[in-house]
Prior knowledge:
Oligomer: single chain
CATH architecture: Sandwich
Helix content: 25-40%
CATH class: Mainly Beta
Shape: globular
CATH topology: Jelly Rolls
Distance between the termini: 43 Å
Number of helices: 9
Structural class: alpha+beta
Amino acid sequence: MSSVSLGDAEGISVLDFGAFLNGSESTKAELAWAMLDSFKRVGFVYLVNHGIPADKVRNMFQWSKRFFDLPSEVKLLAPHPPSGTHHRGYSAPGVEKVVQHIYDEENLKNIRAKAPNVKESFESGWEESKSMPNIWLPDGVLPGFKEACMDFFWTCHETELNILRALCLALGIPEDLLVKYHKAHDNQLRLLHYPSVPVRDLEEDKISRIDAHSDFGSITLLLQDNVGGLEVEDPNKPGHFISAPPIEGALIVNAGDFLMRWSNDLIRSTIHRVRAPPQMKPINGMTPERYFFFFFFLEFLAVVECLPGTYSDDNPPKYEPISASQYVLHRLAASY
Length: 336
């Protein structure tokens, strides 16, 4: 086992990212290559010593629970707009239905009616954004919540940039190349809560948590509680899913569709979903509730082409240059 590897979880590498943040040039390179290898094999990697302080993670989980414990009518004082292209504010259970590459409105309507995603969410981003302004609760409703979200947003952003620097090192390109495409802060902090629901309804597909999908941005950071339920499609067995269990103190990072395109398909954007936790112990036939949060990003104004080093005469670029906004906005619209 290498000095940066802490093992694996169902084939997903578990790595000590502290080797990149604080290590020698050789250990930085070793970590970067190991991370890229996991992205190439399965599209996911676990990182410990990732730079997000444990107390901030605990604090954000506490704030998330305080928010979702509010009465529905209070949470709806910060409503998510009907448009799927403005991902800010609160969405109630059953409103969203994640789908994969389905854009016909009638098909979307039928699919969403069949088995709604029983989750609720709150989304926020860069406070100064003109294109996607935040939608907060009225002043005085939950004092400190906005400030906690914004503090955590910027902490995650710094970790994002360090992960991108490591990826550049592994690809043999300047370490700031990807960073410069993520300076407009078109990022999203998404708090998620899965209420306790009847186990039978999940097993009989009357309801779902998050259906199988790939992310559409560059990379996603995921912090989950210890309940579990995240599953990743086995790259070697399409349609077969493996558990991505919670690991104490670990950050899960996965590549999105845009990074796969950006890397000329060198990096995988892997289908994943959230189901009932494995080996769960229902109480009176009900699942335990679950909390986690995402932080994911893409620079809407960036126009990108396949990265240097990901193509050659024998493996030419597969994609034409494209703007992130052109690529992403139709995906956003179909995800709500």
